[in-house]
Design a protein that fits this description.
Blueprint: E1 7-12, E2 15-25, E3 28-32, E4 38-46, E5 49-64, E6 67-85, H1 91-106, H2 112-117
Antiparallel strand pairs: 1-2, 2-3, 3-4, 4-5, 5-6
């Protein structure tokens, strides 16, 4: 089974993101926005353990902080890895645990995700 192509529009901070599938191999799919600045990779692998990776990469051109006349390429990524044994843990349990992490990251004022990214531990 595969996720829809394209992935339905996701809006964040009033910006709509549409991801179309640009590649697919066994256990891995890559989606990308039309401008190519955002790439979503979803990968499932099974070796000694089952592992799911959901990764979002962004590339952008911005001013060089040391020379405002120069533009420079920058990139960053955000990803979630769900690692579990082949037996003894259900997909539902992993999903609920992921929901707990999602809720934790957006709890607090400001949310804990922002606070951690800013360096709090």
């Amino acid at each position: 089974m595969a996720l829809p192509d394209p992935i339905p529009t996701i809006t964040v901070n009033s910006v709509a993101y549409d991801f179309a599938r640009v590649g697919m191999t066994d256990g891995k799919a890559v989606y990308q926005t039309a401008d190519g600045n955002d790439r979503l990779t979803i990968e499932n692998s099974v070796k000694n353990r089952s592992r799911t990776l959901i990764r979002l990469d962004r590339s952008k051109i911005a001013a060089n902080p040391f020379d405002a006349d120069l533009n420079q390429a920058y990139s960053f990524s955000t990803y979630v890895v769900m690692d579990r044994p082949k037996l003894g843990v259900s997909a539902s349990e992993v999903n609920l645990h992921g929901q707990l992490l999602d809720a934790l990251l957006v709890a607090g004022t400001p949310d804990y995700r922002l606070r951690v990214v800013q360096g709090e531990v």
